[in-house]
Amino acid sequence: MTTINRAIPPKIQPIQAFSLPTPRRETLSNGIPAFFFDNPYLDLIHILLQVHTGSLYQPEKHVCNFAYSLLRESSPKYSPEEVSEKLDYFGTNVSVNVGMDCVQILISVPKNNIADILPVVSEFLINPTYRTDNLRIMQDKEIKNLAYNTQKTDYCSWRIMWREMLGDTFPAVSPFATPDTINALSTNILKEFHQSSFCAENVSLFVTGNTDPQIENLIRTAWTAIPNGTPSPKLPEIPVSQKPGKLFYQPMPDCLQSSIVLCCLSMGFNDDDRTRFSVLNTLTGGYFSSRLMQNLRERQGLTYGVSSSSTFFGNQSVFAINSDVNADRTQQAIDACFEELKRLQEEPVSREELDMVKNYMAGIQLRAADTTVTSMQKFAYWHRFGLDETEMHRYLTEIKKVTPEEIFLLAKRYFSYNNFTRIVVGNYLANE
Prior knowledge:
Elements: E1 24-27, E2 33-38, E3 44-51, H1 63-69, H2 80-89, E4 93-98, E5 103-110, H3 114-126, H4 132-149, H5 153-166, H6 179-183, H7 187-197, E6 203-209, H8 213-223, E7 247-251, E8 257-266, H9 274-286, H10 291-299, E9 306-313, E10 316-326, H11 330-346, H12 351-367, H13 372-383, H14 391-401, H15 404-414, E11 421-426
């Protein structure tokens, strides 16, 4: 019997080529683009409605989250309890994810039950009747969540970040949420926002599973009922801060730790540098063996974890490094972060380290699209930015070509100290 030496990693097998399946495309009679990902072995049909709206589009704080999160409780024919019973009985799940510039509604339903449940679901999605008692329950819940979250340093650091990055442009981030802003909502406000945002011009439809002509006709019938309206406008371009390197500090004297965020406005998803920058980001703080993890966690023991990421919205993104650290070593952790950013600007990364990062990223991409459901979700995300299934091949090909010289130049362009706003929430200045 052969003994496996687990100290020796298996050989890396480079990915030569990979493409997502090409969906069948059509346009519904009300203009909604529809994409069907066939899978004859999947009898649980997945229907994804992607709505071109989100928290950055709302006229008042909280409106988008409340309007879309309360849809299940807003059927014009059935009580919330009756809707829950029907969904359970027919094995159906309806989940809603409200983002900054996109709302996703995912419906999972067994093939044999779709004719019974889809009319119920489509009705409360298209023609909701918001009820005051359900609104009040959600308001009370959100007020309690707010009271709890504002005691957490990481929550406070992130909301400061969004306020400082986006300024006064959007009600979603300025001013901060309070019980009064939550209680200011009414059913009429929710109804008006839903009617203006949930229109055919804002919706894209994605379907995967073992469909047949009859099921596809049921799906078409359900969503051609979405009315036409006015599409959401493009989000405005946020100007880069004129106060680079500024520090924002929110004290929480009783905390044993501080949450730090180092952030800056950055490129859009379709920017020429985006794919190469994703390699730089992964190298910096995007995976467990990143430069930041090796320095702050492994060498100095300042934190359990540190990460970096880009959040895309409209034609921009926010790049952020974040970590929770011992309060008495807050400045040491900030200095260590900038030390790694500076090192990337001064010392080209080795090909060995870069190849490890690129192989990791390629593997993550493949794992994120290993079923027709995840492939559909990846495609839907790219569709938001005008891309299609060829994005996977382009992305993997582009990653493979990235050189140490390109990483060096990108770090010099984007990682200047003065590009970053520094945010600290916790017990920072009292200890340093």
